[in-house]
Amino acid sequence: MRDLLPPESRARRKVSEQLQSAFERYGYDLVTTPLFEQVEVFERGLTLDPRDLLRFIEPDSGEVSALRPDITPQIARVVATRLADYPPPFRLRYEGTVIRRRRGRARRQRQLAQVGVELIGISGIEADVEIIRLMAEACSAAGLAEFRIELSDVGVARSLLREHAPELLGQAALALARKDETQLSAILSQAGLASHERARITALAHLHGDLSVLDEAEQIVRGTDAAFHVDNLRALADQLVAAGLGGRLGVDLGEIRGSGYYTGVSFALYAPGPGEAVASGGRYDQLLGQYGAPQPATGGGIDIENLLSALDAAGFAWRERDKVRWLVAGSGKELDEVARTLRAAGFAAATLLDGDASAAQSYASAWGYDAVVLVAATGPLAVVRGDGTRRELAPELASNDFDALSSWARSPSSKE
Questions:
Q1: What residues contact residue 83 under an 8 Å CB cut-off, 6+ apart?
Q2: Beta bridge partners of 389
Q3: 3-state percent helix, strand, coil for the chain, nearest multiple of 5
Q4: Which fold has domain 325-409?
Q5: 129 with 243: CB under 8 angstroms?
Q6: 148-270 sits in which CATH class?
Q7: Which fold has domain 1-147+277-320?
Q8: How many other CB atoms are there within 10 angstroms of residue 260's CB atom?
Q9: pTM, 2 dp
């Protein structure tokens, strides 16, 4: 848990608004769910280690509640209950914080800011295409230019492992994640799999790369239930290529980790910087049934922290404000008049009563104001920017072009 001070809070809000605007353009309606609710809501929809939830006894009801580790199960509950009379498909968007306990020595941040979308009620591949396109467009709208989308389908590995012991899936998932064919082969051998079965499953560890990986995958899974999932992935890739995303696509058929509710196509969007996915999601056709309203569904979410890390790595100035922020300092009735004029023009303007030039500059620097307007009882006197450069103003407000002064206030520091 940590506080976010004004510069980061402001920048996060700006990026989040850009993402939400992209979601809204696709027709997604905003839903807000509580930060905590009954443990049963999460246990019904997620495969969780009990230690992953931060639990507490709700004082009023005495019920066991938990801080949410995931928002998607809450959306499923809302659709099954509060929106039960609405016709599908459901296009819903959300924004919120999730809380996850991290065990072990390398404890990472537990408070994660997310925005995302859920598309419920469409079983066809067009829904998966819409979600992936929307994740790409939203990240682009926030300023991210360089990223890659890795496609997967949990059904490939699960189909090949389905006939064997359930615990084999978890052990194999870790080995596949590390692309460790030797360890994976050893696990499968200890489980008593025949050599041809071991060869087929261990091949998943190197089935990652560009879209040509699907050609090899089709040969490996031919004649098995996994072939359906590879064909489905091929159809998805073809439609995404047609949508203009071909140059960003990759495939990883060994990826079966992540949320336990995924049932088919999944994806992860990566960019230089964070070392983790900026966005991820996938199809979860069985989750709504856990809440009494079985429907096909798919969705995706964006990790705000990882997105901002990627924007930093790309040199994108996401912390900059769209407009200059002014501090109006001095005395006299003209102080409020100047501030009102700036606000009416669409600028942010705060006042500092009886502040001399030196004190005003110090205050402006500490709180992130771009420039100071010095005012006296006779009217505005001058604008002073961060490097101390001063520009005189006309006493008449109407003759002061604050748009032009804004450009000057943000121009590179130089003595004039």
A1: 90
A2: none
A3: 40, 20, 35
A4: Rossmann fold (3.40.50)
A5: yes
A6: alpha beta
A7: BirA Bifunctional Protein; domain 2 (3.30.930)
A8: 13
A9: 0.86
